[in-house]
UniProtKB/TrEMBL annotation, chains A, B:
Superkingdom of the source species: Bacteria
Stated name of the protein: Maleylacetoacetate isomerase
Native source species: Halomonas heilongjiangensis
Domain GST N-terminal: 1-82
Gene3D superfamilies in the record: 1.20.1050.10, Glutaredoxin (3.40.30.10)
UniProt cross-references to Pfam families, sorted A to Z: GST_N_2
GO MF terms, alphabetically ordered: glutathione transferase activity; maleylacetoacetate isomerase activity
Keywords: Isomerase
GO cellular component terms, semicolon-separated: cytoplasm
């Protein structure tokens, strides 16, 4: 059985849950409590020296890390339903939208970075929130522009069925809502996320539905 | 002709130059001076609303963004020499090593983030350097552990020929050297980077060799 090491609120683990669900794959979950620092334990680092979730342990015991690498692996092994279009330039568009979230927004706003701001740089709550919102705004401004003006967009980020881009966008919006970012300037993003959230694969992947939700 | 919008010192543009060179593809370069803020100009944003380099404009006028998405596109259109192994779990390993650099280290240390630290959070030079080195150390500790203990590693990050992982690692090490990070704890990383730097594709991609180098 495939085992997902994750945490209910981790955006990156949430991405992998969505991908697994969209492909209708069964998996066990092992929660790693990031707030308690369990990702730094010897036991977990034996699976993933990065000390990061998610890690996916496959049937044959191979450990895979980094959410986008895991999603590409799932796509290669279980190509249907597909998370990427067929045509190379369209695949590049989907991957760029995914990377815009995964490389430009999320890395700046995850728990370990916010902790560094507070503990090492002695940043107060207000400045921490401003930091968080600044990177969401910068990234979502670009994403909204791309989704609005590029012909590929549909009910989802690319076309009318979920791709890797939606797999990344939905957890990022969940996260932005937690930090009370103003999403009114992003009607296209909001519409796409609402469409995705209506799908069972996204619903079952939601943080509130996980065994470690609190 | 393919046109690369980049900046000689940008890690992400450097990655794409290496990939283009490894695949022996010809391209024009249009420099976008990040220090002067040219990436925020109307002209450049018409190509890429993200206001980020690199952007690759293909023969038929399609603009591609996000370095890893561009590299995957080049891989799909020009599969030989390959930047990814054939077997899905090995491809996942290479992509995870690439993402470890591209999502966990580089986004925290690029110019716009360092500027935010200085201008908005009023962080002094020493604390800025400590921030930079903290994320390099965290990332390289994990990378060194993976490269040392995993069977896939060779003269390069995976096997003995360059992959997407080396395409990301070499620019990150260049960057770390610029900020005088101590790389003595990372013998495996240093050996791999030395091997890559001996190859013409990497040499021609180096920042010092670009038309806008200063």
């Amino acid at each position: 059985m495939t085992t997902l090491y994750g945490y209910f609120r981790s955006s990156a683990a949430y991405r992998v849950r969505i991908a697994l669900n969209l492909k209708d794959l069964e998996y066990d979950q092992v929660p790693v409590n990031l707030v308690k620092g369990e990702q730094r334990s010897e036991t977990f680092r034996a699976h993933n020296p990065q000390g990061l979730v998610p890690a996916l342990v496959t049937d044959d015991g191979t450990t895979l890390t980094q959410s986008l690498a895991i999603c590409e692996y799932l796509e290669e092994l279980h190509p249907s339903p597909s998370l990427l279009p067929l045509e190379p330039a369209e695949r590049a568009r989907v991957r760029a939208l995914a990377q815009l979230v995964a490389s430009e927004i999320h890395p700046l706003n995850n728990l370990r970075v916010l902790k560094y701001l507070v503990h090492e740089l002695k940043v107060d709550d207000e400045a921490k929130l401003a930091w968080y919102r600044h990177w969401v705004t910068t990234g979502f401004d670009a994403l909204e522009a791309m989704l609005s003006r590029e012909a590929g967009s549909g009910d989802c980020c690319h076309g009318d069925t979920p791709t890797l881009a939606d797999v990344c966008l939905v957890p990022q919006v969940f996260n932005a809502e937690r930090f009370e970012c103003d999403l009114t300037p992003y009607p296209r993003i909001r519409r796409i996320v609402a469409n995705c959230r209506a799908l069972p694969a996204f619903q079952r992947a939601a943080p509130s539905e996980q065994p470690d939700a609190s």
